[in-house]
Design goal:
Blueprint lengths: L4 E7 L2 E8 L2 E6 L5 H11 L4 E2 L4 H14 L18 H11 L7 E2 H7 L6 H9 L12 E2 L14 H15 L27 H11 L1 H10 L12 H11 L4 H13 L10 H6 L2 H6 L4 H16 L5 H5 L3 H8 L7 H10 L12 H10 L8 H8 L6 H17 L4
Parallel strand pairs: 1-4, 5-6
Antiparallel strand pairs: 1-2, 2-3
């Protein structure tokens, strides 16, 4: 290779870019929101490169990257890189990252220890944050302590990082790679088409690769089919949760319907002001118990007074902050708050350790004769981060299958 150049090429992830010099690959650019954006980022990273027909070594690298992103075996570790001007420590970090097998991870601290620099986890993270050789230096295989994904500077952020791991883990287990894109190719952010702020297909593929034991349950149950509560307001969603507490679904639905029927003119479901204006006799007549009536009134008072934030503000909070706010309401504990996080906000990483269905499903999924304790579920659940909500749904489905019996 004697000239500096770059080109774009299509992959299962989208249109990627690659730049080269006479000494090897200079840069690999993952897809941006558009091909023009990818080209712009690539040109900015390698300003002296010009569009060109790639020479044979670059064509081989492009072919390997393309196969890798389809979930097929491909050796990316032997592609020659041009690290001219890369500082010695960063060079060593990149070499350590290239030695991590596909589909597996090390923490930033573990990479630092391999370099003989314990305590340099932050410096390792900074070096990988400047990595110009995406995929060829697989910085997506380096995660934070405890298995948390950590940051990722490519378009799509952590979702793209987890998606790359999902592709690799699916390939390692002989499963097909996720069928959907890892990032929104229109450059959009926010909810997916099914209402979740994450890609369920990527989550399922990630779980299959992270925990082969859980993969068997995933195969038995089939596609992830959890549905979100579409209540228009935080009050309406939590009021429904209060009504449903400790009741069979059919009985709870009847009571909830009767309570809503007390206010037919709103067309917006339950409103806190109307609940506060209703008499105890009206609400009790709809089927509410005295404790639930007290909880509903306390919720309404806290929402009207602003002590419980609006739904838009709640969406911006971390999970534990949401739990803290909601648990201030009489009759709402951690379990109810976790159900709200999962079934209203669609948070991806909630594991209700005190839920009987979770414990029962865990025993069924992993062949336990007795119900597991919190510690065992929490330890196994570390494999499922950051998609413990999806894993929880599959555990609940394990219980449902025993109730319904095997399919005909």
């Amino acid at each position: 290779m004697t000239e500096n150049g770059f080109t774009l090429f299509d992959t299962a992830l989208g249109r990627c870019g690659i730049a080269w010099s006479g000494h090897g690959i200079v840069c690999v650019q993952l897809p941006e929101g558009s091909a023009a954006g990818t080209r712009e980022r690539l040109a900015g990273a390698v300003p002296d490169a010009r569009p060109a027909e790639p020479p044979a070594p670059v064509r081989r690298a492009v072919d390997a990257i393309t196969r890798h992103l389809r979930g097929e075996p491909a050796d990316l570790s032997s592609v020659e890189l041009d690290m001219t001007g890369v500082p010695e420590f960063r060079r060593r970090v990149y070499e350590a990252a290239r030695a991590i097998p596909a589909g597996t991870t090390l923490t930033y601290g573990e990479v630092a220890e391999r370099l003989g620099r314990p305590g340099a986890a932050r410096a390792v993270g900074q070096a990988l944050g400047r990595n110009p050789f995406a995929l060829l230096v697989p910085c997506h295989r380096v995660v934070s302590a405890g298995g948390r994904p950590g940051g990722f500077s490519a378009h799509g952020g952590v979702a793209t990082k987890l998606g790359l791991l999902a592709i690799e883990r699916a390939g390692a287990n002989g499963a097909p790679a996720p069928a959907t894109g890892l990032t929104d190719r229109a450059g959009r952010t926010g909810l997916t088409d099914n209402g979740f702020p994450f890609d369920p297909a990527v989550a399922v593929a990630y779980l299959r690769g992270s925990d082969p034991g859980l993969a068997g349950l995933v195969d038995e149950v089939g596609p992830f089919a959890m549905r979100l509560n579409s209540a228009a307001s935080l009050f309406a969603a939590l009021a429904e949760a209060i009504v449903y507490q400790q009741l069979a679904a059919k009985a709870a639905a009847t009571i909830h319907r009767r309570v809503c029927a007390l206010f037919p003119e709103t067309g917006e479901g339950l409103l806190p002001e109307l609940v506060l204006g209703a008499s105890d006799e009206q609400l009790r007549g709809a089927g509410l118990s005295r404790p639930k009536l007290a909880s509903l009134r306390d919720l309404a008072e806290k929402v009207v007074s602003g002590r419980i934030p609006e739904l838009d503000a709640i969406r911006e909070m971390e999970d534990e902050e949401v739990v803290r706010h909601l648990s201030s309401v009489r009759g709402i504990g951690r379990w109810t708050a976790e159900m709200f996080l999962m079934f209203r906000l669609g948070r991806p990483d909630v594991l209700p350790l005190d839920d009987y269905g979770i414990r029962n499903g865990f025993a069924l999924a992993f062949g336990r004769r007795e119900l597991p304790g919190r510690e065992e579920i929490e330890e196994r659940g570390a494999l499922w981060q950051p998609y413990r909500t999806v894993a929880s749904w599959y555990l609940w489905e394990a219980v449902e299958r025993t109730r319904k019996g095997p399919p005909a």
